[in-house]
Specification:
Keywords: Membrane, Transmembrane, Transmembrane helix. The relative contact order is 0.07. The chain has two helices and no strands. It starts with 20 loop residues before the first helix and ends in a 5-residue tail after the last helix.
Length: 67
């Protein structure tokens, strides 16, 4: 019977201890959410500064709203 320290994955690398694995999974999922939201904010700011003055006109152009 193998312990968690002796259990290896397909690449032959040592698995991290079982008590650290959920923490790492949570950390990576939170990191992914933070990076995606940062990319979205950077995209909105880039569009607002280079193409239009205000982000509201960006959303109006997406939904084809005319004043």
């Amino acid at each position: 019977m193998k312990t968690s320290l002796q259990h290896t994955d397909s690449l032959g690398e040592l698995f991290i201890l079982n008590k650290f694995e959920p923490t790492l999974k949570l950390f990576f999922s939170v990191t992914k959410i933070v990076y995606m939201s940062l990319l979205f904010v950077i995209f909105i700011l880039y569009y607002a500064t280079h193409y239009e003055q205000y982000p509201i006109t960006f959303s109006m152009r997406i939904f084809h709203i005319q004043i």
